[in-house]
Amino acid sequence: MEPNPAKRLRTAEEEGGEVRESGGGEQTEAERRKTADVSIIMPVHNASCWLEECLQAIVHQDFTGSMELSVFDDASTDESRKVVEGWRERMEDRGISVVISGHSSSQPRGVGFAKNKAVTQSSGRYLCFQDADDIMLPQRVRLQYETSILHPNSLIGCGVQRLPEGSTERYARWINSLTRDQLLTQAYTSHGPTVVMPTWFCSRKLFMKVGLFDEGGKGVPEDLLFFYQFLRQGGSPLRLDQRLLVYRYHEAAATHSVIEETIWKLRVDFLQERVLSQWENFTIWNAGKQGRKLYRSLSLTNQRKVKAFCDVDENKIQKCFYTYEESKERPKPTVPVLHYKEATGPFIICVKLDMTGGVLEENLNALQLREGTDYYHFN
């Protein structure tokens, strides 16, 4: 799919929720605009209380190339669109072109829909995704642009500062501490994409190769679906260690609407596709609730590959076996429960990261196990 098709290209103006389209005989606004080096892609829905800080930070970017701000307003009922329009002159004085569109339907269409619209109407050769409630530091566009030039097949992220400070402490630490290898090996954890969506930067060519975001609306993890498709195509995630984004935490954030069981199923399916399909058998490290839930979620083929559960809890180990009572198989599947020192790999680790005071990590190191070869985290 070409980013700027010659016919029926969506224009920046929308009326009554419907997109006006141009035929092949007239030049569209996107075609008239000069292509920018970087388009900042911003979906907006009822973000007026955060937009002033967000937009001011864009104006203060130290990037010297050409920039464009592409905003799609997804049925806001506050002053969001008015706030953005109020910044148009200041943006253009700074040399940043502005494209604003949206719809006024009774219900928002969702983050995936709004992002796709903002991308479609933009012109930049590179895309910098920006949430309307976050604040980019002055170096963000420049440093991610320079990295993307060197790594055209990579989805580029960056470190973050959490606001309020100390909120979601474990999650923030995970975002900022993953190694380059772990950006791949920890793609099955419950935290979502290892390069977090509010920090994404990539070429338009890469984005269009992966495909548009899912437009299923509220509850759909469009970022995780895109990230998994990116990995399927051999994409290489990267993260700059510099903390280039102030990542705001609040109860109205779209991430809170994602359905937990939807995320769980996506992760299980991706684990089976990418890891378990390559293994003849394996051990689930955790004989408790999460380990048993993973086992029950597996396909019958992969359930039969589970040679044991292992644990450190003597109460679980003394039971000796786990019987899958709900199974339709006869006899019902029975899986041994072992002490972790008696178990053999490879392992799927179903213990929460950063919750054992370092004991889990010490046990893995003592067994000389390598992440991505001998074990993967699923937690």
From TrEMBL:
In terms of Pfam families, this protein maps to:
Glycos_transf_2
What is the name of the protein in this document? Answer: UDP-GlcNAc:betaGal beta-1,3-N-acetylglucosaminyltransferase-like 1
Domain Glycosyltransferase 2-like, which positions?
A: 39-210
Region span, Disordered = 1-34
| GO terms of molecular function | hexosyltransferase activity
Please report the organism this UniProt entry assigns to the protein: Poecilia reticulata
Its lineage reads: Eukaryota, Metazoa, Chordata, Craniata, Vertebrata
| Superkingdom assignment | Eukaryota
What segments bear the compositional bias annotation Basic and acidic residues?
A: 10-34
Q: Would you indicate the residue range of the signal peptide?
A: none
